[in-house]
Amino acid sequence: MNKDVNVDALFLGPKSENRVFYKEMMEYAITEHMHWRSGFHPEDSALVTPHCQYQPDFRDTLYRTEDILRDLSSRLKTKSVPWFSPRYLGHMNADTLMVSHLAYVMTMMYNQNNCAVEASPVTTDLELEAGRDLCQMFGYDVGKSWGHITSGGTVANYEGIWVARNLKSMPLAMAHHDGAKDLVAGLTEQQLLNMKTSDVLDLTDELKKRGIFEQVRELSARGVGVEPGKLGKFLVPRSKHYSWMKAMDILGLGQEHIVPLDVDSNYRTDVKKMREITFRLMEEGTPILGMVSVVGTTEEGSVDAVHEVVKLRQECEDKYGSSFYIHVDAAYGGYVRSMFLDEESQFMDYDALVDSYRSKEIIPEGVVWPKRDVYDAFQAMSEADSITVDPHKVGYIPYSAGAVAMKDSRIVDLISYHAAYVFEESDEQDVGDKPVMLGSSIMEGSKAGSTAAAVWAAHRLVPLNISGYGHVIGRGIVTADWFTNKLATAEPFVVQGRSFEVRPLMHPDFHMVNFTFKELGNDSLADHNSLNQRVYERCSYASGRAYSKDFLTSSTSLTVDEYGDTPSIYVRERGFDVQEWETEGSVYILRSAVMTTFLRDEVRFSQYWNNLRDIFTQILTEIVDEENKKSLSHSAA
Q1: Tens digits of per-residue pLDDT, 427-439?
Q2: What is the DSSP letter of 269?
Q3: pLDDT (tens digit per residue) in 177-191
Q4: Which of 206, 335, 522, 627 allows an S-S link to 394, with CB 3.0 to 4.6 Å?
Q5: In this structure, are residues 122 and 449 in contact, taking their beta carbons and an 8 Å threshold?
Q6: Phi and psi (nearest 5°) for 286?
């Protein structure tokens, strides 16, 4: 049984509190590598001799190396964002795991390239093992699924739609190949374009047995391309990441074939409208290439109702005989699923989960998490065909480390550039372990093996369950709940006779907190947006030396173009009338991912909040002073 991790022992710390251990392990990593070099054929003589090392140009080269590194260090310390500090609450970033730093550095010196196994004899295995970890976390059958590391969520999303495109076109390809026509005989084109993922993959197994898989595959979108609109519509929430627009462009599917799904007041996909759109397309006979659910929207951290998407697909299969591909974009929130798993990686019953949170002191009394619909969404992720997840977000692993997991490993043959294999079903055969040359099976080519080592090492130290990542992620969730409640009940900030009220956009689904300041008595949305933009400018890297800032956050605009009329709900709650929204069409918000693990203490958080109130007061004072100076200047003119 796994032991619960001590979270404070996982990070270097905001004040480098664990510096002694960190330096020891860093020295160990470097020393071991130097021993490895000197031990390789020790009979070989040294090629860089002492005589060479004492030459003036040799010493000068070392001095210039030192100068460059000192210059780099100065630039990094001057302009870098201090993710490690609790004063930073912005993008999905925080202090990262020491074990991942050390594993990355240790492996980096061996310069392994996971494109080809001969260039990465160690780290290819580590990547595949890390991929299996993620598949298990998502509830996939580890022996039949497939996962690997990418450069980030964008590439992982590309791969999700890449396999969906090729899968959707395979039945049509079979209908055009003499040796495969009998497999789809009697099916209309509409039926061919709406087959279940598992049914298509079962047919590809038959193609492999007949020895014609590669021939048929070349008649699919992979070989002959895509006729515009032929494969149908791609349904994506308005809360989508911009990578989906890029993916439709890059893969030749066309952005005009994206159907946006409206979001509700919690910025989750509106289930009622999603169902209406889906059934309308079914009635029209329009194929659905795929549907995306977002688990952790980039701007609000919202969790779509994945369970409702799975239910909807089943209804379409039962009523219309039509199915569609489901991809979950959990780049942000994917690792949160570990919080629902026991030490045997089993998804826990809701009541047992809450009891375990209390007994392990992960989620205290007074913090209600997860909401029941969030719980249901995470549970249903195991039914998705593929999932994007970013270890470099809530996995607390350094950049760049994205990942994609696919429920059925057979789907990889639709995109791979190596020979397809047939694996018979048996207890002994592990489909997920079939021979794979990574570079031939993924979108990227050369890729750092050190990234795979960083992810692998993190998973070994911090298990993907309630006793591991549950403690790490839980700290941010609790702090975000406290932060939201403080914002929701905060007394106005009074500056030179003017009052400013701060309020959250909504209660978060896990730890993204959005909020805005409003001057009481000023019902201009344009002024509200300007105020919050000016607050952000004083709390961001944009205004100079980020390292010296008292508080750092991020921001975004919720616009009518992106979100339709949904942001108007918050606008009205803040006291602005409909005309203001119709005129502006946008609301500017401050956006804080509360990922820090160092504020999960009520006394410490209370002190933090009091300090933050002082900082906000000072920022608002600066803004008011600036406005007064401008007013005096205009009066004088």
Answers
A1: 433 444 444 578 8
A2: B
A3: 999 999 999 999 999
A4: 335
A5: yes
A6: -85, 120
